[in-house]
Amino acid sequence: MPPSPLIARTVPSLRRAVDNLRKRKSTIALVPTMGALHDGHVSLVRLAKRRASRVVVSIFVNPTQFAPTEDFGAYPRTWKADIAKLAAEGVDVVWHPDVAAMYPEGFATRIVPEGPALAGLEDRFRPHFFGGVATVVGKLFTQCRPDIAIFGEKDFQQLRVVTRMAGDLDLGVNVIGSRTVRERDGLAMSSRNVYLSPEERQTATTLYRAMKDSAGRIRAGEAIGSAVARGTEMIEAAGFALDYFDVRHARTLAPVTSLKDGPLRILVAAKLGSTRLIDNIAV
User: Fold this and answer.
1) Is 37 within any annotated ligand binding site?
2) Is position 95 within any domain?
3) DSSP per-residue codes, 2-26
4) For binding (R)-pantoate, which residues are annotated in this chain's numbering (predicted)?
């Protein structure tokens, strides 16, 4: 049985653990998560192990990125299973603070990102979200002091926001995106997939199929507006309530008008029943 990772719950204990790793001249990778780990998270850990000699995984369900109407209280928490997965992957340290450790009484400083955080995608429907993400990730970076940090491409706008923030604030962290891990039928792995009923789970694959269809049309020369309209039609016909289905520049998330504006990324967010799903693919 592999040894369990060291579990740090306070900033001083985390700093001691990281300092001990640094004494061995190790490079350190951070994988930030909110727990409820699945194979997508495991793929992030494996990439981290390839890119650094030591790996820290944070597990913290961050309340500041949830609106009052969202699922903070119901967000899945699977601590024992998570630790077993991380032990099996040889993770060195798990940073598992509680809310009071991250946001102590009197906490009054927040990061307010712009640029890709104001692209009119997730921010249009969750205006609170990227301020919460940027603040907690900024704290994670300064607490763990990693050389690199691994984020999944499934949350593509988040990846762009965090990358921009790390560069703008000279945090000394190289942010690396890891490809989206999918189920065999194409559905992107997500902790929120457990909310889907069996019928909704079958329908959910429409998002990936619509993106692939639209991407193929764009590569074949069809106008972006026409390809987006077709994808939108597919998704809404399947019963989703669509928030957005859009094509953007893959680095800046700026609007685009043709394939020549590339590299391009298709991004989608839609609600199926009570479950909101997001996904994206390259064109």
Assistant:
1) yes
2) yes
3) PPPPEEE-SHHHHHHHHHHHHHTT-
4) 65, 158
